[in-house]
């Protein structure tokens, strides 16, 4: 198929925040290769729609919520009919393990369908792996800009400014910390975040912002308990794009492998990424200036497991010391102030 004959593309990617941001280089490359094509992205839940709502390369965002609104046959077949009648010239399916996304892909036939294959045998970053799905179009993945992309509207920028003003942090250099993750195996212990924040405030006189998602308030409570100067608590208190705007105003973010880490890299904020069980070669921060902290002397690192079976529970995360994370932030501040 000639690229100039493709006028509409459907990219199917139900997934979490990081998974979706990791396909933004692919979307950017599709638009570069086919500037006149109309690109539609299909996500899995309403909450992730904003990741593409203001992306200049994306014309429309659809939702395939297989556990919610499309769980019933009637709603799902209405979605299929929408795909049939839209008549996409190309479908790229990034969720090949789902019967539903295969049916959606087949609804576009006889159009061209490209399918993503998650590598199991190579150590390659997810961003590059996602780009490999469009290699049949003649894309050279070795030459593509791999930086993630998030477009934030003015209203969210203003909301972030207001939050910082209300907290009295306008004149402070800001550092963000994200203590939570989808799985506790990715998390640094709360007491170490407490010690880090106290050092940052005492020795560097910076403002600290704690970010996170719904259900993670207990982490802030554990971190801030007994602190003379509690950090700004923004856990589950902002929209997704306002959170991106807050992170954009921070010099650095300290986080495990989770959504805010990828939000930070997408808005150009440096990350001190804390890794243990998860492999940063696959899902680590993309771009320049980031630092991955992990202890590979722990025999099971990376184990890629969802539960820790090490006799020393979460030894990989416990080994990460407050001092080494603090030193990474000091270096980032020095580099930032030396611009």
Keywords for this entry:
single chain, 339 residues, alpha/beta, Rossmann fold, 2 domains, six-stranded parallel sheet, five-stranded parallel sheet, globular
Describe this structure as you would to a colleague.
The chain has about 350 residues and is α/β, with parallel strands linked by helices. It has two domains: about 5-145, Glycogen Phosphorylase B (Rossmann fold, 3-Layer(aba) Sandwich); about 155-335, Glycogen Phosphorylase B (Rossmann fold), CATH 3.40.50. The protein contains 14 helices and eleven strands. It has a six-stranded parallel sheet, sandwiched between helices. It has a five-stranded parallel sheet with strand order 3-2-1-4-5, sandwiched between helices. Helix 5 links the parallel strand 4 (about 90-95) and strand 5 (about 110-115). Helix 10 packs across helix 11. The longest helix has 16 residues, at about 320-335. It is globular, with a radius of gyration of 21 Å. The model has no long low-confidence stretch (mean pLDDT about 90).
Topology summary:
Elements (H helix, E strand, L loop, with lengths): L7 E5 L4 H5 L2 H10 L4 E6 L6 H4 L6 E4 L9 H14 L3 E4 L5 H8 L5 E4 L10 H6 L22 H13 L7 E5 L11 H15 L2 E4 L6 H8 L7 E2 L6 H9 L3 E4 L3 H8 L3 E5 L5 H4 L7 E3 L21 H4 L3 H16 L2
Parallel strand pairs: 1-2, 1-4, 2-3, 4-5, 6-7, 6-9, 7-8, 9-10, 10-11
Helix pairs in contact: 7-10, 8-9, 8-14, 10-11
| Series of H and E elements | EHHEHEHEHEHHEHEHEHEHEHEHH
Strand order of the largest sheet: 8-7-6-9-10-11
Give a quick account of the main beta sheet: strands, pairing sense, barrel closure: 6 strands, parallel
Number of strands: 11
Looking at the chains present, what oligomeric state does this protein adopt? single chain
State the low-pLDDT regions, or none. none
- Span between termini: 47 Å
Percentage of β-strand residues: 5-15%
CATH-scheme architecture of the largest domain: 3-Layer(aba) Sandwich
Q: What is the residue-averaged pLDDT? A: 92
